[in-house]
Amino acid sequence: MPAIAKLLEQYPDIKLPTPPAVALQIINEVRKEEPSFTRLTEIISADPALATKVLRIANSAMMSPVTPIDSLDKALTRMGISQTTNIALSFALVNELRGSDTNSFDYDYFWKRSLTTAVGANIIARKIKLRCDHIFISGLLRDIGLVIACLCIPEYHEIFVDKRESIDVAEQKFKFDFTHNDLGSEVLIHWGIPEQIAETVRFHNRPDDAPAELADSIRVVHVAGLLSALFHGRTSAHRLVAARQVLQQHYHLDIHAIDTLIDEISASSGEILSLFHIDGDIPKTAVEILQEANEELFHLNMTASRLADQYHTEKQLAQQASEKLHEANAELSRLAFQDSLTGLYNLRYFHDCLERELRRANRYNKVFSLIMFDIDDFKQVNDTYGHQAGDTVLREIAATATRSTRTTDVVVRYGGEEFAIILPETDIDTAAAIAERLREGIANMRVNWNGETITVTASVGVSYFCSSNARLTANQLIAVADAGLYRSKRCGKNRVSLPQ
User: Fold this and answer.
1) Strands 452-454 and 458-465, how do they pair?
2) For 190-212, what is the mean pLDDT?
3) 85-119: per-residue pLDDT in tens?
């Protein structure tokens, strides 16, 4: 839905502003297939003040005529119908669309910015040799939708309070379902203003999306708008940088040429503002703008330096916190899989590891073995010497089991006084040898406890996995080793039993 339709749908009682009579007469004459010089001269001359202002602009430094222009006929002949009538329209529209003092919207500031944009666009266009008779009025009416919206919608001006430097298009879209760019463009077309001007209003803040045939003139208005913000209000270094980038990238102007351009816009703007009876301070010079921008950059650099130091400190703290978190997670992981008494892996880890080893052996056609052993008559140790003595014996058995196996083997406290060892890529003969070394090591242990020596033995069972018994499950492997363990106990304990 067009912006005007959305506006009238939300506010059916409003009346859109219309151009003054002289502006309508000029527009109607210019829209004719062959506009009459004589008729245009009559229309503008009917308002002596308007005619005088047009001639003063025609002879201004901004226009830089080769010889003085002392009549409207000469202006129309040398400047052309479009440029002359656009200047006349500019005066008529600025005079008409000034708003009231009760409105929070600052109309004088708006037109000050707009006129500086128009002057800047005209000077930049001449500098880059861009022929565009509509460039001045396009820059002037760039944000005309703001004025129209503020005149029509009572609460519209609220979004501009304390926002001279930046108008949030997204905020307009959210609150009113249209932007001032679209509204301004449509109203200008409704008035009969040439389409090139209306399209500039629509695309001035996004020149890369503009129609190709208008891209250069719209980009000129865009960069002129960036510069006008520097002349009136707080200088922003990023706007100066953005304007320089456009002028360097698209028009190959160097820094000196750009600074000269800024000075020229400053000088011409003061002259043009006085013709439009816009009060205010004289626009800043290039030196003042650069000085303010440099001061801002200095403060930004100081702030950036402080932020960098703060970032460095916070990064170090974050890194330390991350390391502590990593250590804590590692400790939690260790505690989740470690037996607190012996320091060996626990039953949970054993089952996970056994399943992984079984899958690996199946996939790669590998062998592995499993040893399970239990301390013989361990209850007697606890009953005779106490549970603390029993815990000491269990810790020593864990150490002996670790010394008796390889680094690739996984030693586990299965539960109570029962232990298990997973031996990757180990056949039954090697597993039997390791089991015997383990049994012997435990039998040779001597644990000193309160002046007494405690000795224990272990009963051991072994199982293994290979291609010939590839259908064995983890539980079946445990059962085979466990059966060997109990067979060792039945046969007199302190022995190793292999699968039958």
Assistant:
1) unpaired
2) 89
3) 888 888 888 888 876 655 567 788 888 888 889 89
Quick check: 217 and 196 in contact, CB under 8 A?
yes
The number of distinct structural domains making up the chain is 3
Q: Is 387 exposed, middle or buried (0-12, 13-18, 19+ CB in 10 A)?
A: exposed
What does each C-alpha distance from 313 to 37, 302, 303, 307 come to in angstroms?
73, 17, 15, 10
The total of other beta-carbon atoms located within 10 Å of residue 246's CB is: 18
In-domain check, residue 78: yes
Confidence tier at 162 by pLDDT (50, 70, 90): very low
* 82 and 181 inside one domain: yes
Q: What is the pLDDT of residues 361-413, one digit of tens each?
A: 998 999 999 999 999 999 999 999 999 999 999 999 999 999 999 999 999 99
Q: In this structure, are 120 and 62 located in the same domain?
A: yes
DSSP strand pairing (496-497 vs 447-449): unpaired
The pairing of strands 368-375 and 458-465 is antiparallel
By C-alpha distance, which of 363, 498, 492, 495 is closest to 429? 498
Instruction: For the chain, give the percent of residues with pLDDT over 90.
Output: 33
Residue 447 · residue 453 · CB < 8 Å: yes
Contact 198, 185 (CB under 8 A): yes
d(CA 412, CA 368): 16
Residues 7-47 pLDDT 10s: 777 778 888 888 888 888 988 888 888 888 888 888 888 88
Same domain, 280 and 373: no
Q: Which pair of structure tokens corresponds to residue 359?
A: 């899958």
- Return the structure tokens found at 275: 């013709």
Minimal CA–CA distance to 424: which of 371, 345, 347? 371
Residue for token pair 């004589």: 38
Range of the domain at 272: 3-298
Single pTM value for the model: 0.57
Q: Which amino acid is at 215?
A: A
Q: What is the C-alpha to C-alpha distance for residues 408 and 405, in angstroms, rounded to an integer?
A: 8
Same domain (yes/no): 307, 437: no
* Residue 39 token pair: 């008729």
305: confidence class by pLDDT, cuts 50, 70, 90: low
Tell me whether residue 64 is in a domain.
yes
Give whole-number Cα distances, 20 to 154, 470, 492, in Å.
Answer: 22, 98, 120
Instruction: Go through 98-131 and write b for each residue having 16 or more CB atoms within 10 A of its CB, e for each that does not.
Output: bbeeeeebebeebbbbbbbbbbbbbbbbbbbeee
Whether 276 contacts 111, CB under 8 Å: yes
pLDDT for 233: 63
Map tokens 């040898």 to a residue. 433
CATH number of residue 193's parent domain: 1.10.3210.10
Residue 57 in contact with residue 63, Cβ under 8 Å? yes
Q: Are residues 317 and 387 in the same domain?
A: no
